[in-house]
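tool_log.txt
---
The assistant was asked to compare two proteins side by side. It first ran the structure predictor on the initial sequence, then on the second. Raw inputs and outputs are pasted verbatim so the downstream comparison step can read them without reformatting.
(1)
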Amino acid sequence: MVTPRRARVEAVGEGAAVTTLELFFDLVFVFALTRVTDWMADDPTAEVVLRGMLILVVMWWSWVGYSWLGNVAKADEGVIRVGMLVAMAGVFVASITIPEAFDDLPGGLSGPVVFAVAYFVVRIVHLGMFWICSRDDPQLRGQVVRWIPSVVLGTVLLLLASQAEGWLQTVLWAGALLGDYVGTALAGASWRLNSARHFAERHGLIIIVALGESIVSIGIGVAALPVSWPIIAGSVLGLAVAGAMWWAYFDVTSILTERALAEATGERQIRLARGGYTFLHLPMIIGIILMALGLKKALTYIGGGDGHDLADPLYGIPLAALYGGAAVYLFAHVWFKRYLMGTVNVERIAVGVLLLAITPLVAMVPAVVALLVLAVVLCGLVAYETHRFRELRHAVRHGSHAEH
């Protein structure tokens, strides 16, 4: 794929790796995740968390389109480089505006309008870049045309939401996201996937980004408090939780699912990529960010912030986010692996159900104990899977998986 130099585009090859510009793009997404977590932590009510999840889905939709674009054309070459940088500016402005995405603050520009316009810029640049890439590909051009209505519907509803308030505003946001997702699903599967390795790596790195945000939340939660043994213990436990979630994805699941994606062909490969990565990685990100919210509040309790002491229990929305986020992450893993490979991980379903079942019980113990229980359960799952499937793990991780 080579277009005239006025709009030069270089195709991605099968063995392509993620570019440094894509990693740079992800750093802006890190900022967005941090802003969402901090905004929810300031007032962790059910309404705020719901709106935080809606913002998160919008930011995810902003990111995921460029994962497809970067798999068709090299992100750091020609006109695509310029488009990526412009899109980064849009994502960054939207991220800055997150605290005002629903309710405008006094003075300055209208926050909801700025957020909606920034999102529109990100989407229109993405659409324009794909239009250029499809110049010599009529089938891809047709896919882009079928996709336009969902882009228009999503951005128009967000602009309308910027002029509304209360429940109507929330409904319009939900409608914008639903229109985007349904429209994309109905538009067909004539997209292009040039490199399964690149696509899987791109989504694996965004999981790393989200897990990194959970670690940042641990640090931010106690940044203004004097260091103490409880803070050290709580930080280590929080890191153990994040580490177990990393292990659950990257030990063998990411390897097996990437191979399954690479072995698929044609429209089936596109459907696996769209369903398994574009759609099913979102609940993983949601689970991680909810967990990050819980971790941040737990460390504040453990460290004695906001008038709390070490004996205070974590309860309500922060506890539900901590345990529920971990459960959502595990359930999404099971669904992801089922979608790509046709297998069901019963152990992870059982642990997810267990976490939801014991949530009311850990609300009666100090926050540090609740965090300890979560760390023990998740690390216990990892240890069990590592031992039970040790031979398969060795085969998968060291290249002799074919005979299994």
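(2)
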Amino acid sequence: MSAAEGPLVVGVDSSTQSTKALVVDASTGQVVASGQAPHTVSTGAGRESDPRQWWDALCEALRQCGDAAHEAAAVSIGGQQHGLVTLDAHGEPVRPALLWNDVRSAPQARRLVEELGGPKAWAERTGSVPAASFTATKWAWLAEHEPDAVRATAAVRLPHDYLTERLTGQGTTDRGDASGTGWWASGSEAYDEEVLAHIGLDPALLPRVVRPGEVAGTVHARGELPFSRGTLVAAGTGDNAAAALGLGLRPGTPVVSLGTSGTVYAVSTHRPADPTGTVAGFADAHGGWLPLACTLNCTLAVDRFAALLGLDREAVEAGSSVTFLPYLDGERTPNLPHASGLLHGLRHDTTGGQLLQAAYDGAVHSLLGALDLVLDADADRSAPLLLIGGGARGKAWQQTVRRLSGRPVQVPEARELVALGAAAQAAGLLTGEDPASVARRWGTARGPVLDAVERDEETLARITGVLSDAAPLFEREPNRN
């Protein structure tokens, strides 16, 4: 292990498809050890995972970190948002977790919005208009389709809550992840009793919301983990809030995250409440707000299209008027949960590389369309976009974002920003610092800036037109018989 200047901390990113663990020097931000292990996600109508896989993957990732993990003084978990984890009286999963990209609860989402005052009332109450990704809609779906599972449930958790509870033995969450449930009121920063009563969820089943900077507990698990007994455990948070910590974001700095899902967000001092539902009014992990727009189809959808074409993901070609809307898993932004992929404008001379570029264009169009709504009115619209996530280092992604945004793009050199943000949160427990200040001290946002190019208004307008014309097709519910 490399010599460390200060205490060691562990940051974890439990994402949709894998769990990554970093052991970080709290003084310098140097990553001294790392590990990673995969999970599986179901295919078909739903998207589900067994939470016990996340725990097994965490144990394996920490095992790969070796002795460094044993020396860590604090740990924090960043995890995929929105997932519904139902536990029985023994703490075992009642059923696989319903993940953020499971859109089966779209009818329940529509019904909840209508029954509790409409979009504006929801935005004012919770900061967001719930879509199929939100946990409240998933609980409503479960109550309707699997009432026996609901009756067997003794605790309801989010993915990061589940792992934190396995570490500490205590049911806790944080304001950032709680704000994506639909049952946490952003105005009062407390669980919303009316929403919970409406969906039939006993608040006693929910975890305690830990305040920013508060210790969630200490490690109590024996045998499976390398931590010393008594290692401090931070509150943890959702993946986007953790990445915001990992970048040390200041208000107004725009972020475009390219992962399985795509997101655009910025830290704000103002509580968001967008009645259109495009922007989710999330809380961040250290007392402010994180207005965010999310798409369901990003790198995974583009990679799938590249595989169908038999092309490398970088094998794009310009010069076509073909349009592809890559809504392979339905879509959240725009809110079209029943949509599928749509290809328009195909000609005899259209090449495979042009089709692939159209997939990139369609994915980025959805993200940039929400960017102005995410940013506060006084934000600098010419500032570089921070480009992060698994796709951020791909040349095709970089060039597509530059061309369709017309803005400079900065690609931070630091990798695994969700895990780094969790590590900064853990370090804050030891130093008393704001975790974002810790990340700024570590210099995590440093990286090359790609100059702005002229914005491709023609492509943006073409995609917008195709999307508008196709809306009636996208809004039809599929026949699953």
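---
observation on (2): The mean pLDDT is 93. The longest strand covers residues 18-25.
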